């Protein structure tokens, strides 16, 4: 049935195709037994290389069938010569197979070397980028230090100009705040940002806040819960039951009250 998977059914749930048992009659050598070394996943399904191997084995068996018998000296010499030719052909074929295998290995080695070179180039580029970033950061830090030193020296020069006669004048905060023309009392906007410029634009003008009628209307629109506060007294916790026994959770409070008394 459709729901049953057996050993004789070649389906998607079966790992390897089914190979039935066989019996060889005496005196017969089936050609299929020459392919017994090929299994599923190792030569099967057959590709171009397996087909060439099968054809070569057939040619070899055909040549072996044409070998003369060893009943005479001339046949022995001829047989030996044919066997030598077959052996040379076999060795030539094996050399070709070795060359093909070496070429495949060489291609794989080239790809590996190319991949290693690409990885090394990426690593070198990353290292150069990190080195450049470190130099950029060091340069920015140096610029910041130069600017900081420049501002410090400039402040020192300004302070030095204030003491032309060599006498150090300290800051008198009280005098600055009492002097109407000082920078602290009336700061100049050309020196820095003056926060009081155009300050009238931030004044809030509202009908409900500036007029008495607006205040009355605002108060009338508020609910009673805002103007009239209602406080509910907390209900005492009942520590005793209806029968007069003290609850287990309230025994400690009763003991504390007795000790306090």
Automatic annotation (TrEMBL):
A Pfam family hit: CFAP91
Disordered, as annotated region: 1-20
Keyword Transport set for record: no
Entry annotated with the keyword Cytoplasm: yes
Cellular location(s): Cytoplasm, Cytoskeleton, Cilium axoneme
Keywords tagged on the record: Cell projection, Cytoplasm, Cytoskeleton
Positions of the CFAP91 domain: 4-156
Cellular component, GO annotation: axoneme
InterPro entries registered for this protein in UniProt: CFAP91, CFAP91_dom
Family to which this protein belongs: Belongs to the CFAP91 family.
Protein name, as recorded: Cilia- and flagella-associated protein 91
